[in-house]
Amino acid sequence: MRVIVTRPEREARKWVEDLVLRGFDARALPLIAIRPASAQVAVQEAWRQLGDCAAVMFVSGNAVEQFFAARPQGLGWPAGNALRAWVTGPGTAAALLAAGVAPARIDAPGDDAPQFDSEALWHVVQPQCRAGMRVLIVRGADASGRSAGRDWLGGRLVEAGCAVTFVVAYERQLPVCGPEGRALAGDAAADGSVWLFSSSEAIANLMDMLPGQDWGRARAVATHPRIAQAARDAGFAVVCESRPSLDAVVASIESTA
After folding, report:
1. Which of the four pLDDT bands, split at 50, 70 and 90, describes residue 82?
2. Would you say 25 and 191 are in contact if contact means Cβ atoms under 8 Å apart?
3. Do 138 and 63 form a contact (C-beta atoms < 8 A)?
4. 27 CB-side CA count, 13 A
5. Does 243 have pLDDT greater than 70?
């Protein structure tokens, strides 16, 4: 069975490797391109202010990678155990570990969490929150520079009396897809392939890539209910919801057969 992995290139490579090991014909078709933020000065200033923060929340592994790539020379993650790093899932936690952040500093939903999202993270970090504590949220923006993603967690933090600031560490753009990628996408719309979606934005970019394409025979696995609904709205015939762990995704792919 062929699986089309639509994550950005960095994550897609790992997912393709893991799915191939599980016996699938996995192909990467990144539907979001990641670029460093245009305002690198803002990211560097956020680094200089880390010592004043109680926690930094990273929205994704790309947020971690691009934030650390912009680190000013001579600066590192603050010493001691005070500054916490908050993440919504294991992929982002792995990126922090690769960047050198100690495991004891990282707060994330448990492996058995129903979803790896802001709501699940809030249950973990809410006891830490107190009035006046400073929290930095590192996130992305779309191609026009507008902040991408939900502000749900920021809203909860403000309600708890926290001082929340945001910094855009990367930009999410429509990828350049050549004839081979377009041909793969067109074939996978009707040949029994299973599309793996981890972002509603990826679905929107796919619709822009192939305007007028009939998705009435297409199958998809989505790693969140909101993403699943976006796939249904786009016309996918079969849409399965899955937790974003490898075992759960594999089970969902197999269930579409």
Report:
1. confident
2. no
3. yes
4. 17
5. yes
- Rounded to whole angstroms, the Cα distance separating 165 from 154 reads 9
Query: C-alpha distances in angstroms, 215 versus 108, 144, 203, 236?
Result: 36, 28, 12, 5
The mean pLDDT value for 156-165 works out to 96
List own/partner pairs for 82-85 with CB under 8 A and 24 or more apart: 82/54, 83/50, 83/51, 83/53, 83/54, 83/55, 83/56, 84/54, 84/55, 84/56, 84/125, 84/128, 85/55, 85/56, 85/57, 85/58
Helix, strand, or coil (residue 74): coil
Mean pLDDT across 198-221: 95
b/e per residue 79-101 (b: at least 16 CB within 10 A): eeeebbbbbbbbbbbebbeebeb
Query: Which of 198, 197, 127, 194 is closest to 156 using CA atoms?
Result: 127
Backbone angles phi, psi at 162, to 5 degrees: -80, 155
CA distance 22 to 13: 15
- Cβ partners under 8 Å of residue 251, min gap 6: 242
Q: 216: phi > 0 → left, psi -120 to 50 → alpha, else beta; which?
A: alpha
Say if pTM beats, i.e. exceeds, 0.85. no
Question: In the numeric block, which tokens belong to residue 20?
Answer: 């191939």
Are the C-beta atoms of residues 242 and 222 closer than 8 Å to each other?
Answer: yes
Q: Which tokens belong to 50? A: 């880390």
Q: Transcribe 126-183 into DSSP letters.
A: GGG--TT-EEEEEEEEETTSPBPS--HHHHHHHHTT-EEEEEEEEEEEPPP--HHHHH
Q: If you average pLDDT over residues 190-201, what whole number do you get?
A: 95
pLDDT at 121: 95
